[in-house]
Design a protein that fits this description.
With about 475 residues, the protein is mainly beta. The chain is built from one helix and 33 strands. The strands form eight sheets. The protein has a six-stranded antiparallel beta sheet, with no helix packed on it. Strands 1-4-11-6-9 form a five-stranded antiparallel beta sheet, with no helix packed on it. The longest helix is centred in the last third of the chain and has 49 residues.
Protein backbone atom coordinates (compact mmCIF):
# COMPACT_ATOMS: atom_id res chain seq x y z
CA UNK A 1 0.00 0.00 0.00
CA UNK A 2 0.98 3.65 -0.26
CA UNK A 3 2.29 4.98 3.05
CA UNK A 4 0.97 8.22 4.45
CA UNK A 5 3.68 10.29 6.18
CA UNK A 6 3.53 10.55 9.91
CA UNK A 7 4.32 13.91 11.42
CA UNK A 8 5.73 14.29 14.92
CA UNK A 9 6.70 17.29 16.98
CA UNK A 10 8.15 15.20 19.84
CA UNK A 11 11.63 15.08 18.32
CA UNK A 12 14.09 17.88 18.63
CA UNK A 13 17.36 17.70 16.78
CA UNK A 14 20.47 19.65 16.23
CA UNK A 15 20.26 21.83 13.12
CA UNK A 16 21.28 20.03 9.94
CA UNK A 17 21.36 21.34 6.36
CA UNK A 18 19.75 19.17 3.67
CA UNK A 19 19.18 22.03 1.24
CA UNK A 20 20.97 22.96 -1.96
CA UNK A 21 20.95 19.34 -3.06
CA UNK A 22 19.85 17.79 -6.32
CA UNK A 23 16.54 16.62 -4.83
CA UNK A 24 15.30 19.85 -3.24
CA UNK A 25 11.50 19.70 -3.23
CA UNK A 26 11.35 16.85 -5.72
CA UNK A 27 8.83 14.01 -5.22
CA UNK A 28 10.33 10.68 -4.13
CA UNK A 29 8.63 7.44 -5.17
CA UNK A 30 7.11 4.84 -2.85
CA UNK A 31 8.03 1.48 -4.42
CA UNK A 32 6.67 -2.02 -3.83
CA UNK A 33 9.49 -3.83 -2.02
CA UNK A 34 9.04 -6.96 -4.16
CA UNK A 35 8.31 -5.76 -7.70
CA UNK A 36 9.72 -2.23 -7.55
CA UNK A 37 6.47 -0.84 -8.99
CA UNK A 38 5.67 2.78 -8.13
CA UNK A 39 2.93 2.90 -5.50
CA UNK A 40 2.85 6.66 -4.90
CA UNK A 41 5.07 9.69 -4.21
CA UNK A 42 6.05 11.94 -1.32
CA UNK A 43 8.02 15.16 -0.94
CA UNK A 44 8.14 15.00 2.88
CA UNK A 45 11.74 13.78 2.82
CA UNK A 46 12.92 16.54 0.46
CA UNK A 47 11.12 19.57 1.96
CA UNK A 48 13.92 20.54 4.38
CA UNK A 49 11.75 19.95 7.48
CA UNK A 50 13.68 17.73 9.89
CA UNK A 51 10.69 16.93 12.13
CA UNK A 52 8.36 15.10 9.74
CA UNK A 53 9.10 11.66 8.38
CA UNK A 54 7.86 8.65 6.43
CA UNK A 55 7.75 5.07 7.69
CA UNK A 56 9.17 2.25 5.58
CA UNK A 57 6.60 -0.48 6.25
CA UNK A 58 6.50 -2.39 3.99
CA UNK A 59 7.20 -0.11 1.01
CA UNK A 60 10.56 1.40 0.22
CA UNK A 61 11.72 4.77 -1.12
CA UNK A 62 13.37 5.24 -4.50
CA UNK A 63 14.33 7.85 -7.06
CA UNK A 64 15.60 7.64 -10.65
CA UNK A 65 17.39 10.58 -12.23
CA UNK A 66 16.54 11.53 -15.83
CA UNK A 67 20.17 10.95 -16.76
CA UNK A 68 23.56 10.19 -15.23
CA UNK A 69 24.33 12.45 -12.27
CA UNK A 70 27.85 13.34 -11.17
CA UNK A 71 27.21 13.31 -7.39
CA UNK A 72 29.66 13.11 -4.47
CA UNK A 73 27.47 11.71 -1.67
CA UNK A 74 23.96 10.81 -0.51
CA UNK A 75 22.91 12.11 2.92
CA UNK A 76 19.92 10.74 4.88
CA UNK A 77 18.44 11.52 8.34
CA UNK A 78 16.89 8.30 9.72
CA UNK A 79 16.05 6.21 12.81
CA UNK A 80 15.87 2.41 13.19
CA UNK A 81 13.73 0.53 15.75
CA UNK A 82 14.88 -2.72 17.38
CA UNK A 83 18.37 -1.99 18.68
CA UNK A 84 21.65 -0.42 17.68
CA UNK A 85 22.62 -3.31 15.43
CA UNK A 86 19.61 -2.90 13.11
CA UNK A 87 20.19 -1.04 9.86
CA UNK A 88 18.75 1.00 6.99
CA UNK A 89 19.81 -0.44 3.63
CA UNK A 90 20.77 1.95 0.81
CA UNK A 91 21.08 0.55 -2.73
CA UNK A 92 23.02 2.68 -5.23
CA UNK A 93 22.64 2.01 -8.98
CA UNK A 94 25.42 3.59 -11.00
CA UNK A 95 25.12 4.97 -14.51
CA UNK A 96 27.57 2.37 -15.87
CA UNK A 97 25.23 -0.48 -14.89
CA UNK A 98 26.97 -1.53 -11.66
CA UNK A 99 25.45 -1.24 -8.17
CA UNK A 100 26.40 -1.25 -4.50
CA UNK A 101 24.70 -1.71 -1.12
CA UNK A 102 25.38 0.27 2.08
CA UNK A 103 24.10 -0.38 5.63
CA UNK A 104 23.39 2.53 8.01
CA UNK A 105 23.12 1.54 11.72
CA UNK A 106 21.66 3.22 14.83
CA UNK A 107 18.42 3.40 16.85
CA UNK A 108 18.63 7.15 17.44
CA UNK A 109 17.99 9.90 14.88
CA UNK A 110 21.15 9.86 12.84
CA UNK A 111 22.58 11.63 9.79
CA UNK A 112 24.07 8.97 7.53
CA UNK A 113 26.36 9.70 4.59
CA UNK A 114 26.99 7.40 1.61
CA UNK A 115 29.95 8.40 -0.54
CA UNK A 116 29.48 8.00 -4.28
CA UNK A 117 32.51 7.01 -6.32
CA UNK A 118 31.04 7.54 -9.77
CA UNK A 119 27.95 8.96 -11.52
CA UNK A 120 24.71 7.41 -10.37
CA UNK A 121 21.39 6.70 -12.06
CA UNK A 122 19.09 5.82 -9.12
CA UNK A 123 18.91 4.74 -5.45
CA UNK A 124 16.58 2.91 -3.04
CA UNK A 125 16.13 2.94 0.75
CA UNK A 126 14.70 -0.22 2.42
CA UNK A 127 14.82 -2.30 5.60
CA UNK A 128 16.22 -5.79 6.22
CA UNK A 129 13.86 -7.06 8.97
CA UNK A 130 10.49 -6.40 10.60
CA UNK A 131 11.50 -3.39 12.67
CA UNK A 132 10.39 0.05 11.53
CA UNK A 133 12.61 2.48 9.64
CA UNK A 134 11.92 6.22 9.79
CA UNK A 135 13.26 8.55 7.12
CA UNK A 136 13.13 12.25 7.98
CA UNK A 137 15.12 13.84 5.19
CA UNK A 138 17.40 12.84 2.34
CA UNK A 139 19.24 14.48 -0.51
CA UNK A 140 21.97 13.91 -3.06
CA UNK A 141 24.79 16.42 -3.32
CA UNK A 142 27.06 16.96 -6.24
CA UNK A 143 27.48 18.99 -9.41
CA UNK A 144 24.11 20.51 -10.35
CA UNK A 145 22.91 20.23 -13.96
CA UNK A 146 23.13 23.67 -15.55
CA UNK A 147 23.23 22.52 -19.16
CA UNK A 148 20.03 23.38 -21.02
CA UNK A 149 18.55 21.14 -23.71
CA UNK A 150 19.28 21.83 -27.34
CA UNK A 151 17.23 24.45 -29.13
CA UNK A 152 14.30 22.70 -30.85
CA UNK A 153 15.02 22.27 -34.56
CA UNK A 154 12.76 22.16 -37.59
CA UNK A 155 10.45 24.81 -36.10
CA UNK A 156 7.97 25.72 -38.85
CA UNK A 157 4.32 26.66 -39.03
CA UNK A 158 1.31 27.10 -41.28
CA UNK A 159 -1.78 29.24 -40.79
CA UNK A 160 -5.35 28.21 -41.51
CA UNK A 161 -8.85 29.39 -40.76
CA UNK A 162 -8.57 30.65 -37.14
CA UNK A 163 -5.80 28.07 -36.61
CA UNK A 164 -2.04 27.72 -36.61
CA UNK A 165 -0.13 24.44 -36.87
CA UNK A 166 3.43 24.45 -35.50
CA UNK A 167 5.81 21.59 -36.27
CA UNK A 168 9.26 20.84 -34.83
CA UNK A 169 11.71 17.99 -34.28
CA UNK A 170 11.74 15.94 -31.10
CA UNK A 171 14.33 16.66 -28.40
CA UNK A 172 16.28 13.55 -27.38
CA UNK A 173 17.96 14.57 -24.09
CA UNK A 174 17.59 11.94 -21.37
CA UNK A 175 16.57 14.62 -18.84
CA UNK A 176 14.12 16.35 -21.19
CA UNK A 177 10.96 17.52 -19.41
CA UNK A 178 8.70 19.68 -21.62
CA UNK A 179 8.39 22.42 -24.24
CA UNK A 180 7.39 26.04 -23.71
CA UNK A 181 5.61 27.84 -26.54
CA UNK A 182 5.65 31.61 -26.40
CA UNK A 183 2.69 33.20 -28.22
CA UNK A 184 3.21 36.96 -28.46
CA UNK A 185 5.43 36.68 -25.37
CA UNK A 186 3.00 34.59 -23.31
CA UNK A 187 4.48 31.16 -22.36
CA UNK A 188 2.51 27.95 -22.25
CA UNK A 189 3.89 24.59 -21.12
CA UNK A 190 3.47 21.55 -23.36
CA UNK A 191 4.42 18.10 -22.10
CA UNK A 192 5.90 15.80 -24.70
CA UNK A 193 2.91 13.46 -24.32
CA UNK A 194 0.51 16.32 -25.14
CA UNK A 195 2.20 17.13 -28.43
CA UNK A 196 0.69 15.35 -31.43
CA UNK A 197 2.93 12.90 -33.22
CA UNK A 198 3.41 13.56 -36.91
CA UNK A 199 6.36 11.23 -37.36
CA UNK A 200 8.47 9.23 -34.91
CA UNK A 201 10.91 12.09 -34.38
CA UNK A 202 8.58 15.04 -35.00
CA UNK A 203 6.09 16.98 -32.91
CA UNK A 204 3.14 19.18 -33.83
CA UNK A 205 0.99 21.70 -31.91
CA UNK A 206 -2.39 22.84 -33.23
CA UNK A 207 -3.68 26.16 -31.90
CA UNK A 208 -7.39 26.90 -32.35
CA UNK A 209 -9.60 29.91 -31.78
CA UNK A 210 -7.19 32.47 -33.21
CA UNK A 211 -8.37 35.66 -34.88
CA UNK A 212 -8.21 35.74 -38.67
CA UNK A 213 -6.20 38.62 -40.06
CA UNK A 214 -4.15 39.03 -36.85
CA UNK A 215 -0.40 38.41 -36.83
CA UNK A 216 0.92 36.06 -34.15
CA UNK A 217 4.57 35.64 -33.18
CA UNK A 218 5.76 32.26 -31.87
CA UNK A 219 8.93 31.08 -30.12
CA UNK A 220 9.68 27.58 -28.80
CA UNK A 221 12.06 26.37 -26.07
CA UNK A 222 12.91 23.01 -24.49
CA UNK A 223 13.17 22.52 -20.70
CA UNK A 224 14.87 19.68 -18.78
CA UNK A 225 14.13 18.07 -15.43
CA UNK A 226 16.33 20.64 -13.64
CA UNK A 227 14.36 23.49 -15.22
CA UNK A 228 17.19 24.46 -17.54
CA UNK A 229 15.59 26.16 -20.53
CA UNK A 230 17.08 26.22 -24.00
CA UNK A 231 17.47 29.27 -26.18
CA UNK A 232 14.44 30.13 -28.28
CA UNK A 233 13.67 28.72 -31.69
CA UNK A 234 11.95 31.22 -33.96
CA UNK A 235 10.42 33.63 -34.37
CA UNK A 236 7.65 32.38 -36.63
CA UNK A 237 5.12 35.03 -37.63
CA UNK A 238 1.79 33.70 -38.93
CA UNK A 239 -1.56 35.23 -39.77
CA UNK A 240 -4.63 32.97 -39.61
CA UNK A 241 -6.92 33.53 -42.57
CA UNK A 242 -9.97 32.23 -44.34
CA UNK A 243 -9.28 29.31 -46.66
CA UNK A 244 -7.85 30.26 -50.07
CA UNK A 245 -9.84 28.61 -52.86
CA UNK A 246 -8.58 30.69 -55.82
CA UNK A 247 -6.06 28.81 -58.01
CA UNK A 248 -3.18 30.52 -59.84
CA UNK A 249 -3.45 31.60 -63.48
CA UNK A 250 -3.11 28.94 -66.19
CA UNK A 251 0.42 28.93 -67.68
CA UNK A 252 1.13 29.05 -71.43
CA UNK A 253 3.49 26.23 -72.48
CA UNK A 254 6.04 25.87 -75.28
CA UNK A 255 8.50 23.07 -76.01
CA UNK A 256 11.62 22.33 -78.00
CA UNK A 257 12.77 18.83 -78.98
CA UNK A 258 16.39 17.73 -78.60
CA UNK A 259 18.39 14.54 -78.77
CA UNK A 260 16.56 12.12 -76.42
CA UNK A 261 15.31 15.20 -74.60
CA UNK A 262 12.70 17.93 -74.52
CA UNK A 263 13.02 21.46 -73.14
CA UNK A 264 9.81 22.96 -71.77
CA UNK A 265 9.20 26.59 -70.91
CA UNK A 266 6.06 28.35 -69.72
CA UNK A 267 4.89 31.78 -68.63
CA UNK A 268 5.77 32.40 -64.96
CA UNK A 269 3.00 32.96 -62.44
CA UNK A 270 2.74 36.33 -60.67
CA UNK A 271 0.75 35.26 -57.58
CA UNK A 272 2.27 36.05 -54.17
CA UNK A 273 1.29 32.60 -52.87
CA UNK A 274 2.58 30.68 -55.91
CA UNK A 275 4.22 27.46 -54.71
CA UNK A 276 5.17 25.62 -57.92
CA UNK A 277 4.09 23.73 -61.00
CA UNK A 278 2.88 20.25 -61.96
CA UNK A 279 4.24 18.74 -65.19
CA UNK A 280 2.10 16.22 -67.08
CA UNK A 281 3.50 13.87 -69.73
CA UNK A 282 1.09 12.03 -72.01
CA UNK A 283 -1.76 12.92 -69.64
CA UNK A 284 -0.22 11.64 -66.39
CA UNK A 285 1.73 13.43 -63.65
CA UNK A 286 5.45 13.50 -64.39
CA UNK A 287 6.98 15.86 -61.83
CA UNK A 288 6.26 18.48 -59.17
CA UNK A 289 8.46 21.56 -59.39
CA UNK A 290 9.17 24.76 -57.49
CA UNK A 291 8.70 28.20 -58.97
CA UNK A 292 11.19 27.80 -61.87
CA UNK A 293 9.37 28.11 -65.20
CA UNK A 294 11.49 25.81 -67.35
CA UNK A 295 12.42 22.14 -67.34
CA UNK A 296 14.63 19.85 -69.42
CA UNK A 297 13.39 16.25 -69.60
CA UNK A 298 16.00 13.67 -70.60
CA UNK A 299 16.24 9.93 -71.32
CA UNK A 300 13.42 10.05 -73.84
CA UNK A 301 13.11 7.91 -76.96
CA UNK A 302 14.00 9.56 -80.23
CA UNK A 303 11.36 9.70 -82.98
CA UNK A 304 8.58 9.15 -80.45
CA UNK A 305 5.86 11.76 -79.92
CA UNK A 306 5.41 13.09 -76.38
CA UNK A 307 2.66 15.44 -75.21
CA UNK A 308 3.06 17.83 -72.28
CA UNK A 309 0.88 20.08 -70.12
CA UNK A 310 1.68 22.20 -67.06
CA UNK A 311 -0.43 23.60 -64.21
CA UNK A 312 0.35 26.00 -61.35
CA UNK A 313 -0.46 25.46 -57.66
CA UNK A 314 -0.30 27.77 -54.63
CA UNK A 315 0.62 27.39 -50.96
CA UNK A 316 -2.97 26.43 -50.13
CA UNK A 317 -2.90 23.51 -52.56
CA UNK A 318 -5.13 25.14 -55.20
CA UNK A 319 -4.16 23.95 -58.69
CA UNK A 320 -4.92 25.78 -61.90
CA UNK A 321 -6.33 24.17 -65.02
CA UNK A 322 -3.77 22.58 -67.31
CA UNK A 323 -2.04 24.64 -69.95
CA UNK A 324 -2.20 24.18 -73.69
CA UNK A 325 -0.90 20.80 -74.84
CA UNK A 326 2.48 20.75 -76.60
CA UNK A 327 3.54 17.71 -78.66
CA UNK A 328 7.25 17.26 -79.38
CA UNK A 329 9.34 14.50 -80.94
CA UNK A 330 12.92 14.04 -79.72
CA UNK A 331 15.37 13.31 -82.53
CA UNK A 332 19.03 12.99 -83.22
CA UNK A 333 20.54 16.37 -84.04
CA UNK A 334 21.35 17.49 -87.57
CA UNK A 335 25.01 18.09 -88.40
CA UNK A 336 25.54 21.42 -90.13
CA UNK A 337 27.53 20.60 -93.28
CA UNK A 338 29.09 22.73 -96.05
CA UNK A 339 31.00 21.79 -99.20
CA UNK A 340 33.38 23.47 -101.63
CA UNK A 341 34.58 22.21 -105.01
CA UNK A 342 38.38 22.15 -105.21
CA UNK A 343 40.82 21.13 -107.92
CA UNK A 344 40.16 17.42 -108.24
CA UNK A 345 38.15 16.89 -105.01
CA UNK A 346 35.11 18.01 -103.05
CA UNK A 347 35.93 19.48 -99.60
CA UNK A 348 33.21 18.70 -97.03
CA UNK A 349 33.32 20.54 -93.66
CA UNK A 350 30.96 20.37 -90.67
CA UNK A 351 30.40 21.65 -87.16
CA UNK A 352 30.68 19.58 -83.98
CA UNK A 353 27.52 17.69 -83.02
CA UNK A 354 26.95 17.20 -79.30
CA UNK A 355 27.13 13.57 -78.21
CA UNK A 356 28.62 12.34 -81.49
CA UNK A 357 31.00 9.37 -81.30
CA UNK A 358 31.98 9.74 -84.97
CA UNK A 359 30.70 10.83 -88.36
CA UNK A 360 29.69 9.07 -91.58
CA UNK A 361 30.63 10.76 -94.88
CA UNK A 362 28.20 10.50 -97.81
CA UNK A 363 28.35 11.57 -101.48
CA UNK A 364 24.96 11.75 -103.20
CA UNK A 365 23.52 9.42 -100.57
CA UNK A 366 26.30 6.84 -100.89
CA UNK A 367 28.47 6.04 -97.83
CA UNK A 368 32.09 6.99 -98.51
CA UNK A 369 33.85 6.67 -95.15
CA UNK A 370 33.52 6.83 -91.33
CA UNK A 371 35.71 9.18 -89.26
CA UNK A 372 36.27 9.89 -85.57
CA UNK A 373 34.52 12.49 -83.39
CA UNK A 374 37.39 14.97 -83.62
CA UNK A 375 37.43 15.23 -87.44
CA UNK A 376 35.80 18.33 -88.98
CA UNK A 377 36.60 18.04 -92.71
CA UNK A 378 36.91 15.41 -95.41
CA UNK A 379 38.13 15.33 -99.03
CA UNK A 380 36.02 13.30 -101.45
CA UNK A 381 38.28 12.57 -104.45
CA UNK A 382 37.60 11.39 -107.98
CA UNK A 383 38.67 7.91 -106.95
CA UNK A 384 35.82 7.93 -104.41
CA UNK A 385 33.28 8.82 -107.09
CA UNK A 386 33.47 12.60 -107.19
CA UNK A 387 32.90 13.94 -110.73
CA UNK A 388 33.08 17.72 -111.19
CA UNK A 389 30.99 17.38 -114.42
CA UNK A 390 27.98 16.07 -112.51
CA UNK A 391 25.11 18.49 -112.27
CA UNK A 392 24.79 17.58 -108.57
CA UNK A 393 27.44 16.64 -106.00
CA UNK A 394 25.99 16.50 -102.50
CA UNK A 395 28.47 15.89 -99.69
CA UNK A 396 27.23 15.14 -96.18
CA UNK A 397 28.56 14.43 -92.69
CA UNK A 398 26.09 12.64 -90.39
CA UNK A 399 26.79 12.16 -86.67
CA UNK A 400 26.92 8.68 -85.10
CA UNK A 401 25.76 8.27 -81.47
CA UNK A 402 26.65 5.77 -78.77
CA UNK A 403 23.45 3.80 -79.27
CA UNK A 404 24.35 3.27 -82.94
CA UNK A 405 21.78 5.72 -84.23
CA UNK A 406 22.62 8.20 -86.96
CA UNK A 407 21.72 11.88 -87.12
CA UNK A 408 20.76 14.04 -90.05
CA UNK A 409 22.72 16.46 -92.18
CA UNK A 410 22.03 19.97 -93.43
CA UNK A 411 23.99 21.16 -96.46
CA UNK A 412 22.77 24.57 -97.73
CA UNK A 413 24.93 24.41 -100.87
CA UNK A 414 23.11 21.43 -102.41
CA UNK A 415 19.50 20.45 -102.91
CA UNK A 416 17.80 18.44 -100.16
CA UNK A 417 17.02 14.76 -100.35
CA UNK A 418 20.39 13.08 -99.84
CA UNK A 419 21.47 13.49 -103.49
CA UNK A 420 18.21 12.41 -105.11
CA UNK A 421 16.39 15.21 -106.96
CA UNK A 422 12.68 15.46 -106.32
CA UNK A 423 12.45 18.45 -108.70
CA UNK A 424 15.21 18.39 -111.32
CA UNK A 425 15.26 22.18 -111.74
CA UNK A 426 14.70 23.15 -108.14
CA UNK A 427 18.38 23.13 -107.31
CA UNK A 428 19.51 25.70 -109.87
CA UNK A 429 18.86 29.36 -110.70
CA UNK A 430 19.50 31.29 -113.95
CA UNK A 431 23.15 32.24 -113.16
CA UNK A 432 23.95 28.70 -112.10
CA UNK A 433 22.20 27.34 -115.23
CA UNK A 434 24.27 29.58 -117.62
CA UNK A 435 27.47 28.73 -115.80
CA UNK A 436 26.73 25.03 -116.00
CA UNK A 437 25.77 25.26 -119.71
CA UNK A 438 28.95 27.10 -120.67
CA UNK A 439 31.08 24.63 -118.73
CA UNK A 440 29.29 21.78 -120.45
CA UNK A 441 29.78 23.27 -123.95
CA UNK A 442 33.45 24.04 -123.30
CA UNK A 443 34.13 20.52 -122.17
CA UNK A 444 32.26 18.72 -124.98
CA UNK A 445 32.49 21.27 -127.91
CA UNK A 446 34.84 19.17 -130.15
CA UNK A 447 32.64 16.13 -129.84
CA UNK A 448 29.50 18.18 -130.54
CA UNK A 449 30.98 19.72 -133.73
CA UNK A 450 32.04 16.36 -135.10
CA UNK A 451 28.63 14.90 -134.32
CA UNK A 452 26.90 17.80 -136.08
CA UNK A 453 29.13 17.46 -139.11
CA UNK A 454 28.39 13.78 -139.44
CA UNK A 455 24.64 14.25 -138.94
CA UNK A 456 24.12 17.30 -141.12
CA UNK A 457 26.77 16.87 -143.97
CA UNK A 458 24.39 15.09 -146.46
CA UNK A 459 21.74 17.72 -145.95
CA UNK A 460 24.19 20.56 -146.43
CA UNK A 461 25.61 18.96 -149.62
CA UNK A 462 22.16 18.58 -151.22
CA UNK A 463 21.24 22.13 -150.23
CA UNK A 464 24.43 23.44 -151.81
CA UNK A 465 23.78 21.55 -155.14
CA UNK A 466 20.23 22.89 -155.40
CA UNK A 467 21.43 26.43 -154.68
CA UNK A 468 23.99 26.25 -157.51
CA UNK A 469 21.37 24.88 -159.93
CA UNK A 470 18.93 27.64 -159.08
CA UNK A 471 21.54 30.32 -159.62
CA UNK A 472 22.48 28.83 -163.04
CA UNK A 473 18.88 28.92 -164.26
CA UNK A 474 18.47 32.48 -163.15
CA UNK A 475 21.56 33.58 -165.02
CA UNK A 476 20.44 31.91 -168.28
CA UNK A 477 17.05 33.62 -168.23
CA UNK A 478 18.66 36.92 -167.63
CA UNK A 479 20.90 36.62 -170.62
Amino acid sequence: MILVPFFSASHSHAAADYSKGLLDGKPINFLDYRSGAVMGTTNVVTDGNLDNYVLLSPNILGYTFPGAVDAQYLKVRYRVDGGADNDLIVFIYYADGSNNMFRLYGNAITDGVVKLAKPIKSFRLSKSNGFNRYVYELNVFGTPDTTPPAVPTGFTGTAGDSTVTLSFDRNTETDFSHYVLYTDGVPRKYLDAEVDLEKNNSRKILLNGLKNGTKYTFYLTAVDADVNESARAGPIILTPRLPDTIPPAVPTLSGQAGNESVELQWTPGKEDDLAGYMIYQNGTTLRKLGVDNRLKITRLQNNKIYSYEVSAFDTSGNESARSNMVSVTPKNPVTETEQEAKDGYLLVTWTETEGATGYKIYLNGRLIDTVGPGVREYRITRAMGYNPANLVNKGEARAIFKDGSEGGSSNPNTPPGGGFLDNPLSFIGIPEMLKTSISFLMMYAPFILIALAVVFSPVLYELLVRLIAWLSKKNLKGS
